[in-house]
Amino acid sequence: MAANPELREQLEQAIAANKVLLLMKGTPEMPRCGFSMRSVGVLEQLGVEYGAIDVLPAMGPLREVTGEISDWQTFPQLYVDGELLGGCDIIEEMHASGELAETLGVSQPEGEPQTQADSSDSRAPTQSPPLQIET
Amino acid sequence: MIAAALPGASVEVVDETGGGDHLRAIVEAPQFDGVKTIDQHRMIRAAVKPRMDDGAIHALSITTRVAAR
Fold it and tell me: I need a labelling partner for B45 at 20 to 30 A (CA). Which of A90, A117, B23, B63 fits?
């Protein structure tokens, strides 16, 4: 079955409109999956501005859309400059190597990269408001 | 299945939960040279797709390294 064309167009617009876009389960404030939470943690450590879409309200249809546009059907998914960079494994691997900071054009935080966000670190992340996709 | 798709690759599969369906694949393959990480993962997912589709594998974490040719 082909993906819903309207949903596909909405997602493509969101990817084009956000230099950094995370498709995740839940929201950055309240992730609903450990992998999504870890991905948010990496982005917040880097202090990068990003958009987020909660896929849970339309996960099945969105899976079909991302299968078509990116050949990838699991969430989270991190898009940078219109291209899928990867899921949680790749995000953490690229974060550990410093490649992610380089790709995003930010400086690697001091010290060892951590895989969990430290919530006591009070620097608030710059972040665009979460986007909602209605179906 | 991964080794068949990527001849010459060294493949290690770890059962992360003991249940047999949450797996981690650590793959070192010469074919990864010059290939973006995401495309390396796509190659592995494509190789195991039948097992993902039939539900035998529920979750697959992937770690890739480039092997020297």
Answer: A117
Numbers of helices and strands, H then E, in chain B:
2, 3
CB contacts of B38 in chain A (<8 Å) are 72, 84-86, 90
* CB under 8 A, 24+ apart: contacts of B5-11: B5/B43, B5/B44, B5/B46, B5/B47, B6/B31, B6/B43, B6/B44, B6/B47, B8/B67, B9/B67, B10/B67
Tokens at B44, concatenated: 């592995």
Give domain limits for chain A: 5-104
Average pLDDT of chain A to the nearest whole number: 86
Of B42, B62, B63, the CB nearest to A71: B42
Q: Which residues span the domain enclosing B24?
A: 2-66
Longest dimension (CA), chain A: 48
Range with lowest mean pLDDT among A5-19, A113-127, B9-23, B43-57: A113-127
pLDDT at residue A77 is higher than 80: yes
Side-chain-side CA neighbours of A14 within 13 Å: the count stands at: 28
What is the CATH T-level fold of the domain A5-104, as seen in this structure? Glutaredoxin (3.40.30)
